[in-house]
Amino acid sequence: MCAMDVCPSRGCLLLLVFLLQCYNPVNCKNVGPKTFVYSYTANLTEDSRPDRIIQSVKAQVSVTPYLLNPVQTQIGLIGVGKKLLHVEVIFEDDNSERKHTKIEAVAEFKSDGLLQKLHIPTKSHSKITDINIFKGIVSLFVINENFEAGREIDSSGACQVVYAAVDNVATEYNHIVIDKQKSSCKQLQKPLDVWRYSLLPTAGASEAKQMYVRYKINAQNKYLVHVMAYEGLTVSTFSGLDGTEVRFGSWQELDLVEVIYDDRKAVNTEEHMLMDPNEVAVKITGSPNTFIHLTPGFPLKQTTDACSLNYQLFDTTLDNVSERIQPPTLQQAIEGVRNNLQAEQMGTMQPLHAVVQLTHLLRCLPNHSGAVDLLIDATSLSPPAIDARLLYRQHESWRDQLVEVLIGCGTPTCISVVLKRLEALTEAAVVSQPVKHTGHAEVELARKMLFNKLWPALSYMREPASETYRRMIACCRPVAIVINQVICLTTLSNLWPYVINKEDSTMRKSLIDLVEKFLIIDLHPNASSDDLTLQGFEKDTAKNSRLIVGLTIAKNLKATELIHLVTKIALGSVEVFPTVEATAIRTLVVLADEEEHFKLHGSNVEFQLQMNNLKPNVIGKLLKAPVRPENDILIGLALFNTLLELDSSPETISFVLKELAKQKRWPLVRVCRLLISDLCANEVLSISTCNCLGENASGDSVNFFLCDLGAAGGWSGLSIKKESTDGQAIFIPGELFNLNDSLIVKYELQLLTGVEGELKSSNLLVDLLNIDGEGRLFEFNITANGLDAFAPSLNVVSLTSGSSFDTVGWINIGLKNLDTILPPWTVFSGGLSDLLQSFWSTVSTPTSLLQVLRPILDERQYRTFAAGWTLIIDTFGLMSLELSGAVDASVWTRSGRSLIRTRLGVVNEVNMYVVDETEKSGSALIQGFGGEVEFDFITRTKVFDLPEGICMSMSRSNDMRILRWEAVHPMPSFQFSRSKKTSFNYRDLMNSEDYHILHSANIPGVSYDLGLNNTLRCNRMSGRNLW
């Protein structure tokens, strides 16, 4: 059969000729065969030093287009529809390991000019870093054919883009210029080696990006002549704090050098008539391909310098650890920080900066048993270093702070040393013996080191593994002395929320069993000798101290399993101190809010019964006439506060206030109104609720509804916002520190006094506010009972009898710093003779009560650039806190002063560097800031002038110092390596060769307002407000 029989017309012949030339069903068409050769440069800089290039790349880029549209005859790269681009990159920069390296791939584009997928040869074994740079180059060819706004995927991620013509008329050079702006980019991959630990309301290293691309296109032949891309990244080293931004700039430039023709590039279409684009890509590259997208991957650092908390990502089967890590280097580094860890250095900046450097070093130790042994030898903190002879040398020494450094290090290697020390000291302290004084000096020292230092420090451990937690419970369970068991239980309760893999119910049950006996009210006549509730031996003050401990730990644990015991104390008819009852009421609402937690650890049926009755019971008890009117404000305020958290609807609140007014309980009504005013001022209650209750939180009259408060809202004196003239309830807010409204530290003092003016409770709250929110920094609580016994009108004989609540004074202190509570501490219990006796033993020189050294901000984040670079941002913030106290009293004048001094030091350093697998990653930039401050809280008392004979003052007598710095030169992280001499030297913050001081300020001291009545009392009492 002839061709004319099949195709008689001339048009059909022409079509047949075309099909013979392009036989591929996908209409593959090689253009020319034409190759576009470009020169490519890219660099990364930081704005404060634009002359210093952090990273740079030079390469030759060859692009050969293969059109997939038979109708298209255009020979350029833009506006040609569906196509394949064979991209080859040959690196030409100074990186010796990357120079002359070649990477190739076939980019498949859709008809709209956007990338569909990238075919990369499986034979390619390029590093992730090089592949990312290659993706950054290919991304420059992603441009919408019609310049339409929309969503595009390239090396910046999935972004929203808009286009704009800079000059939409052909220029004298026959070029058009198009700008593209990218925003709201979302990464399609997530890094593995990240962590975030923050005790502050901050987003850490927050960012802001600017991304622009400018294309120059030949208007006639659609050649892509020139591309310039800019990406700006602003990293805030501390979110919301002005002046802590670091700005990076990344530039990419692609310039057309020549267009060449190379027959070897052509694909013979007659041989690929049945090939799809995937097969064409295989033919072009000569290798099987795998498909990837353009979003950059996240390279991991080398195992030898990983220095990461994500130890599981790196190879831990390292041999000859002792050859890689020279013991003298480790010992030298630890001894070098010895002076900085002395107790007198707590709360100061420069020693903290040295500890930051030591922590980075310790994290570079591999997760290996050999490294644990070397660290034990270097620190002498664990067996066999712990023996009777070394106990004397280690007691109250700098090694107490060294333990906290290891806990802050957080790696399995560091924690292993700490756990070995815990188990060794537990054995040496013979904790199962209930005798406080054993007669053996070594045992006494071991107990002090264990319970005064080690157990409290363990509260700062983060995310302990379940096995670690079990080992700690095993060390706490046999402790026989009550106060020591309180210490270890408090630590375990602090750690419980952070335990990893705590599905094992037996671990939770063993912990609850230890706490339960602290909440038992009824005494057991057949109790064993070490039972906490031994009948006939437990005084009322001791029982209430025990209950305070149980409530504090149950609240911290959110122990819904114990809700029945807490309810009995809070809402039952048991006889406990009013302050303990109020504490139980406030604990109850926390447990009632843990429904999901209760389902995991308790009977859901029992929980629902408790919940269904809780709100009516709270309201019922609140509206019931008090048995002891002098406790009405204390108990009533706790119940009202609980009701607000259970049900903050204005209808319920107004009903309760109206009923209280009917009962003419005006002091309680007024205090409740003060509380509402305070919550509305702090935006805890909604605007509609505040408006309804008459607080006028908003002038918006739309849907404004005024609640019926009855007589409770009719007396304007009930809702005034200043302190009470009768001294029964005081809410005093203020600011400790305000940096341009970007970082605020505020305080609030809440005081509650009895009818005689005696102290019942005092709460000092210190919060941090910034753009990311609000967080509690510090909480100091005092609960008291029976202090009216010291009023001068009472008979002195009755003061010392101790026969009833009314004649025995009792003071308990609670302290919380950040997320960690300290064991409640009963600082006084007894009558006037006990008070006078304590005057004789007072120390007027400030004595350390608490020392804390812990991380407050610790995270690793990744940021990527469209050019392919990956920036790691390591942030490490450290806090040093010392709380000291002193009493200066006179038995003769029955007066005295007490001091609580807080010294605080903070250092936060951010290390930003680009990960490069071809060489050791060097630091691009190190910036940090820090501060140190000292606060004094002084109380002056004249016993026989009470209740007027007491006044308080809070001041910052010394200057507050603030510092910001930057490393002068890039500083690589320390490596333990065979190939290099391993030595470690600390860098001095004040050394101008190492650091450049960006900002330094000394803020003068100041006194803080603690209320009008307090000021008047202080003026009448006269005396010094400085220590």
UniProtKB/TrEMBL annotation:
It comes from Paragonimus westermani. It is found in: Endoplasmic reticulum. Pfam families: MTP_lip_bd. InterPro entries: Lipid_transp_b-sht_shell, MTP_lip-bd, MTTP, Vitellinogen_b-sht_N. The keyword Transport applies. GO terms for cellular component: basolateral plasma membrane; endoplasmic reticulum; Golgi apparatus. GO terms for biological process: lipoprotein metabolic process. Residues 746-958 form the MTP large subunit lipid-binding domain. This is MTP large subunit lipid-binding domain-containing protein. One of its GO terms (molecular function) is lipid binding. Keywords: Endoplasmic reticulum, Signal, Transport.
